[in-house]
């Protein structure tokens, strides 16, 4: 066990813009956050470019960068994170995809990319898809597992496969599902594209008449009648956090992406009771579990998703309310953490302003607190306050900075 312990909390999509509210405040600035403000008074703030200035981050690439990995060189594609995160066992050579349950019409025109953010029936959908088998490639095994809401993961296992294929998801309502095409002129890429096109058509044939979907249609809900694969990738070879820093660690999350990233970086996954990955998640239980895990581990990573969901939904009230729920959940941490030997970093992986409804390249506020952190004069935690923080503006590498405060780093040079 190390002398110092570390905790990283990421509120997904935390950052915003002054267009979030009529008063010209971001959602974070407008929310009531007494416990985050107390942490700000104890520590130091800055602005974080999750990847680099002017780079619009995805959640996957942003997390890699925040953990100290170079996403330009080491990003394998999102599919493998989702597959590992949902509990699929992946092997070297597997091709992994993240998937959406979506709604299409009989012409394969997308009517809802998320099937109404379906909240129930995923187990029935998953069971129905267990018989998927490429008609053109009987030597390829298909594995599928549903995740939270509309999300899931698909794995192709077999010879002569390649991740160099395009996505089926058009990313817009009203457009036809894309035909998957090879992105390189190789037999493996051509074979994989053909397999994926076969699988998505089979998924429609299986799901369109499923009783669950007939019931949804009768209720006026969009049916989850197709599987849209995207983010193809293979298994990466990362230097894990235990290898890099000689630590033990835990990831506490609900979304498969974040679980998968944590597990591939060498962290043990623990699920908090009531953690859903949505706005209804139990934040209090996540923080309570984090405090418990920190008693037996050196490092704990907590991911909280609801801030991003509200931003994507362009719902300022929901985002402010969720930020206030996070803040209230932090009270036991502020009062009960062993502050003589623990350093905390709190930030977002990107900004999701409610007016825009998607990720932007704007920096997000970050704070560090703990015994080795020199406090700055800032007394509140939000974007405007962070502009005055003593950490100024930097890119990625939050975990290496936390490791620095914890004296986990090896000397660079002699």
Description:
Helix content is 32%, strand content 18%. The chain has 414 residues and is α/β, with parallel strands linked by helices. The radius of gyration is 22 Å and the shape is globular. The protein folds into two domains: 5-76 and 238-405, Alkaline Phosphatase, subunit A (3-Layer(aba) Sandwich); 82-233, no CATH class. It has an eight-stranded mixed beta sheet, sandwiched between helices. Strands 3, 4, 5, 6 and 7 form a five-stranded antiparallel beta sheet that branches. Helix 5 (79-86) crosses helix 10 (256-264) and helix 11 packs parallel to helix 13.
Describe what is shown at a glance.
By secondary structure, the chain is α/β, with parallel strands linked by helices.
Keywords:
Alkaline Phosphatase, subunit A; 8-stranded mixed sheet; 32% helix
Name of the CATH homologous superfamily of the largest domain: Alkaline Phosphatase, subunit A
Mean pLDDT: 95
CATH topology of the largest domain: Alkaline Phosphatase, subunit A
Proportion of residues in β-strands: 15-25%
Cα(first) to Cα(last) distance is 26 Å
- Order the strands across the largest sheet as they lie in space: 9-8-10-1-11-12-2-13
Instruction: Specify the number of helices.
Output: 16
Largest sheet data: 8 strands, mixed
CATH class of the largest domain: Alpha Beta
List SSEs in N-to-C order: EHHEHHHEEHEEHHEHEHEHEHHHEEHEH
Low-confidence stretches: none
* Number of beta strands: 13
Shape: globular
Return the structural class. Answer: alpha/beta
Q: How many structural domains? A: 2
Proportion of residues in helical segments: 25-40%
Q: Return the CATH architecture of the largest domain.
A: 3-Layer(aba) Sandwich
Radius of gyration: 22 Å
């Amino acid at each position: 066990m190390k002398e110092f312990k570390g905790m990283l909390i990421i509120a997904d999509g935390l950052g915003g813009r002054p267009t979030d509210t009529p008063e010209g405040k971001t959602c974070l600035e407008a929310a009531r956050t007494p416990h985050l403000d107390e942490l700000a008074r104890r520590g130091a703030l800055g602005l974080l470019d999750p990847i680099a200035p002017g780079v619009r981050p995805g959640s996957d690439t942003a997390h890699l960068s925040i953990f100290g990995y170079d996403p330009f060189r080491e990003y394998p594609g999102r599919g493998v994170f989702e597959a590992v995160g949902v509990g699929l066992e992946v092997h070297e050579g597997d091709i992994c995809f993240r998937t959406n349950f979506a709604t299409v019409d009989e012409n394969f025109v997308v009517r809802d990319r998320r099937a109404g953010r379906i909240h129930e029936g995923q187990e029935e959908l998953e069971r129905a898809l267990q018989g998927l088998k490429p008609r053109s490639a009987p030597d390829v095994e298909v594995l599928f597992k549903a995740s939270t809401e509309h999300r899931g993961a698909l794995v192709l296992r077999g010879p002569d496969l390649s991740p160099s294929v395009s996505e089926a998801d058009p990313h817009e309502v009203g457009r036809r599902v894309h035909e998957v095409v090879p992105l390189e002129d190789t037999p493996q890429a051509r074979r994989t594209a053909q397999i994926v096109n076969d699988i998505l058509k089979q998924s429609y044939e299986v799901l369109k008449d499923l009783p669950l979907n007939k019931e949804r249609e009768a209720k006026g809900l969009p049916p989850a009648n197709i599987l849209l694969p995207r983010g193809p990738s293979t298994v990466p070879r990362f230097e894990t956090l235990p290898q890099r820093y000689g630590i033990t660690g835990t990831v506490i999350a609900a979304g498969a992406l974040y679980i998968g990233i944590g597990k591939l970086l060498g962290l043990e996954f623990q699920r908090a009771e009531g953690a859903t990955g949505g706005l209804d998640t139990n934040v209090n239980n996540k923080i309570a579990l984090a405090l418990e895990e920190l008693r037996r581990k050196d490092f704990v990573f907590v991911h909280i998703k609801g801030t991003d969901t509200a931003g994507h939904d362009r719902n300022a009230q929901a985002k402010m309310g969720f930020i206030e729920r996070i803040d209230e959940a932090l009270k036991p941490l502020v009062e009960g953490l062993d502050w003589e030997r623990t350093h905390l970093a709190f930030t977002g992986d990107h900004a999701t302003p409610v007016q825009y409804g998607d990720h932007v390249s704007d920096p997000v506020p970050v704070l560090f607190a703990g015994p080795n952190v020199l406090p700055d004069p800032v007394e509140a935690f939000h974007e405007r306050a962070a502009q005055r923080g003593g950490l100024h503006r930097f890119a990625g590498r939050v975990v290496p900075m936390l490791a620095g405060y914890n004296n986990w780093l090896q000397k660079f040079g002699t």
